[in-house]
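Dear Dr. V.,

Thank you for agreeing to look over these. As mentioned in my earlier message, I'm a first-year student in the group and I'm still getting used to reading structure tokens, so any feedback on how I've presented them would be very welcome. I ran two proteins. I've put each sequence directly above its structure. The first is here:
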Amino acid sequence: MEYKIIGEVLPAVELKLQPGEAVCTQSGGMAWMSDGFQLDSNVKGGLMKGFGRMLTGESLFMATYTATRPDSQIAFATTVPGKILAVNVSEHKLICQKGAFLCAQTSVELKTAFTKKISGGFFGGEGFILQELDGNGIAFLEVDGDVIEKNLAPGEVFKVDTGNVFAFEKGVGYEVEMIKGIKNMLFGGEGLFLTKLTGPGKVYLQTMNFAEFTGRIANGIPTKN
């Protein structure tokens, strides 16, 4: 499989596959393709894993596109302004935010991951249920805004606004803590909670907090008096 990421504001990943090679995505994720693909829509991994994907913001059914001709091309595009992150799952096992998965080779497994602490589930920007990438192969993830990489040393602590955490390696500790001080909570303007990440491991941050982005749009919509 060959791939290239094209576009800047709303990028897409374009794949070139040979006969027998396949890529999977959530239902409705394909943007364009050449003639020469066989589509198979199914509940990849079984019904329970399908329901797990629904909890992480993905669709119950997965679409698998298998190339039937040489140099078949297929593309998957982002839904909001941002970047596409290519991850070699064979080398990096990641925990991702809800809805991050764009597409992947069929050897990549998309699993449901639960936060270890209840507080992280109720107050973390990623929600109680996260996505875990397992298996082998290349996966493509959709980042809101730009992506920033941080390598945390053992025991190193990094605190992030919950909506700006995109993904982190499985070895990274993850919890949510409350901002200290009543005045900071009421007037700081940063929300009540921060995500605390503890190394070792790699952390991926995103510059767009999509919840805040949509909130500003909603506030700008005229309402009837």
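The second protein is here, in the same arrangement:
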Amino acid sequence: MIKKICVYCGSSPGNKPAYASAARELGELMVKNNIELVYGGGNSGLMGVIADTVIGLGGIATGVIPSAFVKHGLCHRSLTKLNIVKTMHERKAKMSALADAFIALPGGLGTLEEITESLTWSQLGIHRKPCGLLNISDYYSKLINFFDLSVSEGFFSPLHRSLIISEQKPGKLLDAIIEFRPEKNIEDWSE
């Protein structure tokens, strides 16, 4: 059962209004479905948009942020819960431990690194949590094409490729995340 979703996204709003619109819509859908937000704890960009939406609708928003970011005033001050950690590595580990699923909205290198690490952990069987890309305005289309190329070139199995959920609409992605069932033949490295 999906009770908490970790959303990775940009600390910038990006150049298209569709990105912020999708962040708001996803936040609204999460609150409607009683799903808590876990995210990087920032107050700007898409991070701020989704957190403000969830909080504004009475949902639960948990931030996980390194102490250096707090010192620079980058922390959202109205969160339901805030976890301050020392490093980015601790941040990712804490967000992973708190969440039942992962979604990447558009973002930069940090967003890409976070979602690909979650996907790698899924591939290795370290967790069996769904991982999704919200492909707003084809933002992730080239990355999805790369994953398909990796399969055709023999670097990525079709089974592991099936772990990557992508949709262009927040509602469809959320439904796919909720309905996701991991393959039983993926090796479990967690033991």
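From my reading of the second output: Residues 17-32 form the longest helix (16 residues). The radius of gyration is 16 Å. Does that match how you would interpret it?

Kind regards,
E.
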